[in-house]
Amino acid sequence: MANHSSLIVDLRSHENNLAHRTREIDRERLIVRRGHPFSITASCSESLPPEHHLELVLHLGKRDEVVIKLQGERGAGNRWWFNQQGAQDELLLTLHSPADAAIGQYRLAVLVMSPDGQMVAKKDEISFHLLFNPWCKGDAVHLPDESLLPEYIMNEDGLIYTGTWDHISSTPWNYGQFEDFVMDICFEVLDNSEDALKNSKMDVERRSDPVYVSRTITAMVNANGDRGVLAGRWQPPYSDGVAPHRWTGSVPILREWSQAGTRAVRYGQCWVFAAVACTVLRCLGIPTRLITNFSSAHDVDGNLSIDFLQNFESTDKQDSSWNFHCWVESWMRRDDLPEGNDGWQVLDPTPQERSDGEFRCGPCPVTAIKEGNLGVKYDAAFIFAEVNADIIYWRVRADGRREKISVDQRSVGRNISTKSVYGDVREDVTLLYKHPEGSEKEREVYEKAGRRVTEPTNGSAEPGRLRLRVKHDYPLFGTDFDIILKLQNYSYKDVQVQLNMVAMAVTYNSLHRGECKRQMINVTVPAHQAHKEVLHLRYEDYAKCISEHHLISMKALVEVQETAEAVMAAVTIPLRMPELLIQIPGKVTKGDKVTAHISFTNPLPAPLKGGVFTVEGAGLLSAAQIPVNYDVAPQKKVSVKLSFTPNRKGLRKLLVDFDSEQLRDVKGVATVVVHKPRRNL
Fold first, then answer.
1. Quick check: 8 and 123 in contact, CB under 8 A?
2. Which of 44, 186, 270, 364 is catalytic?
3. How far is residue 383's CA from residue 385's CA, in Å, rounded to a whole number?
4. Is 52 a catalytic residue?
5. What is the CA radius of gyration of the chain?
6. Where are the alpha helices (DSSP H) in 399-546?
C-alpha cells in the first residue's frame, strides 16, 4: 500500500467567522453562512506532482446521509463548487455554497490526486457548520433591509411585553444565542424531532428550507408528544421544576434539556416557549422577533367567538381570552405559497392545538391574517381568531334559554407589540395583522374569512340608556386599593337595578385562582344621574389567592329589575411590582472581576421568607442563584452582592429576578458596557 503524504488544512476560522458574522458563536471552530464563499488553506508535507488535481467531498448527517462532490469550477445550477489558487506546496481553496444548501454540521474530505488517478494525499473529517444567511440575496431568509439584522439576528438581549392591553409592562430576557454550545444544542433540537427520528435522510435534505426548519422548531420547543425542550404548566404546583416566571433567559433551559439527555425541562408558559424559539431561530440564522398579542383569543371550536355566561364563566371550558399571548415572527420567502405571502411569518411554539398531528403552529404569513386568507398554510384560521374573535356575554333565563347581553367586537387583538430595532422601546405592529377597527376594509376581510354577521343582541339595555364604567389605579402589590364603578342613567326616568360585582385573582391566561371579594346591592339610579359604587380591596383579600402574574379581574353585571335588561363591564387590573435596583460601580473590562449591588424594598405588610435572586447575562455570566438567608421585614430593604467576570466585550445586559414565598417575579435589568482589556506594552 502506497504511503500518502500528509495534508495540513487550516480552516482560517478567525477570518472566515468574522466575515460570516459568526465570531460571537465561536472563534476556534469554523461556522459559515450559506451563499457566501469561505477560504481554507491546504499544504502538503512533500512536493506535489506537477499535474495533480484536487477532489473535495462533503458529508452531511450523522450517518453520512448526504454526500456531495464539489465541482472544480462554477457549474450550471445552484451547486457547491470550489476554486484554488497558489503554487506547489500551499493552496488557497475557496468553497462556494449554494444559497439553498442544507444547514448543519458538514465533514469535508480533501483529496490530492495524481494525473493517473492515484491518491497522493488526503485529509478528512474536517468539520464545519453551515447556517442560514439573511445577508445573502439568494437565501430564502434574506431580509432586504439589512439595518434590521443587528436586532433580529445578532441581539442577544430582548424585551418581552406582558401585562394588560391598557397597562403594558416589559420583561427583560437573555436570548443568549451566541453563548457557548448553544448552536450545538439548536442542532440537537432538530436531530431529535419526530421527522429526523423517522427518516433522517429526508430530514437532513429538507434542512435547506426555512419553512420546514422553523415548523420543526415550533414543534420541538414544547415537549408535548415528542422529545421537545419545555413542558408547559399553567398553574401551581411547580415544586418539581422551575416556575415559568422565574426564568430570565433561554440558555439555562436549553443546556438543562441537552445535559438531561433530551428530557423535558419544567416549566414554561407562552412567553418562555416563544423566547426559547427566538433563541434557536436567531442562532440558526433566521431573522426572528418576539410578538405579544394583548387580549388574545383561544378559539377552539373555530366559530370566531369566545362566549361567557353572566356568572363570568366561559360556556366552553376550552375557549378562553388571555390577557396576553406571545409567539414569534420569522422572516422568510414562502416558495410553497402563491405570491404575496413572503415576509414575516407567525410561529407559535406554545402547545395549544395540533397541526398535522403535532403541537405546533405556523409558519403562517402575517399578510394572510390581515387579508383573511384563511386557507393558507399553516394554521391561519386559528391565528386569525387570536387577533379578531368576538367576545359574547350571555345570560341564562329561568327556562334555560340563553340571551346575549353584549357583543364586544373590538377587545380582542389589541396593541400587538414587539421590541423596536431602535432600542428598548415598544413597537406597535397591530396594523400588520388587521385593518383599522371599524373600517370598510376590516368588514370586507371578516366576510372573506367567513365571520358570521352578528345578530341583534336580545334583552340588552336600549342603546345609550345605561352605561357602566369601571375606574381603577395601578396599585403596588401589597397595598389596599379601590375599584370604582360608575353607573350612568341617560333615560328620562329613575331605574331600579341590581348591581353584582366580583373581584377574582386570575392568571395571565384567565384561569381563576380564587375569589377576592363579591358585592351585590340594589340601587335606584335617578334619571339623568349617576350612581357610584366603591369596592375596597385590602391586601388580605387578594394575598391568599393571587397568582404569580399579580392580576385582579373585576367584572360587574347590572340588571334592570323591571325589564330584565342588562349591562356588563369587565377589567383586568395588574398590580405593580417594586423597583429592583442594580448598581455596578466603576469601569467594566473583559476578563476583570466586577461586583454588582442588587437591592429592593419589601412592599408587603408581611415578611418575605425563602427569598432567592436569580442572575444571568449573555457575555457576563451563566445563570446563578443567590439565596437570602433571612426573613425580610415589611418595608425593609434586601441587598446582595454579586461578583462576576465578563467574558465578551460590548453592550451587555445583566438580568435579575427575585422570588420568595410571598412575593414573586420581581425583575430588574442593568446595561453594562464591557471594554476591551488594555494590552500590556
1. yes
2. 270
3. 5
4. no
5. 30
6. 430-433, 440-448, 539-543
Q: Burial, 636: exposed, middle or buried (Cβ in 10 Å; 0-12, 13-18, 19+)? A: exposed
Whether 53 is catalytic: no
Domains of the chain by range and CATH?
5-131 (2.60.40.10), 156-448 (3.90.260.10), 466-574 (2.60.40.10), 581-675 (2.60.40.10)
Phi, psi (degrees; rounded to nearest 5) at 227: -90, 35
**648 within 8 A of 674, measured Cβ to Cβ:** yes
- Of all residues in the chain, the percent with pLDDT exceeding 90 is 75
Q: Give burial (CB, 10 Å; 0-12/13-18/19+) of 616.
A: buried
- Which parts of the chain register pLDDT below 70? 1-4, 48-49, 87-89, 300-303, 310-319, 451-464, 680-681
Torsions phi, psi for 126 (to 5 deg): -85, 120
270 given a catalytic annotation:
yes
**Exposed/middle/buried for residue 532 (C-beta within 10 Å: 0-12, 13-18, 19+):** exposed
pTM listed for this prediction: 0.94
Residue from 348, 390, 541, 665 carrying the catalytic annotation: 348
Distance CA 511, CA 572 (A): 12
Query: Looking at beta carbons, which pairs linking 419-428 to residues 24 or more positions away fall under 8 Å?
Result: 419/151, 419/158, 419/159, 419/161, 419/289, 419/290, 421/147, 421/148, 421/150, 421/151, 421/152, 424/159, 424/170, 426/159, 426/161, 426/168, 426/170
| CA neighbor of 612 nearest in space, from 662, 653, 578, 654 | 662
- What pLDDT, on the 0 to 100 scale, is given for residue 403? 75
Catalytic residue among 325, 472, 531, 549: 325
Contact criterion met (CB below 8 Å) for 111 and 54 = yes
Q: What is the pLDDT of residue 302?
A: 67
DSSP 8-state symbol, 365? E
Q: Which candidate, 388, 498, 395, 389, places its Cα nearest to that of 434?
A: 388
Element (H, E) at 207: none
DSSP secondary structure string for all residues of 617-631: ETTTEEEEEEE--S-
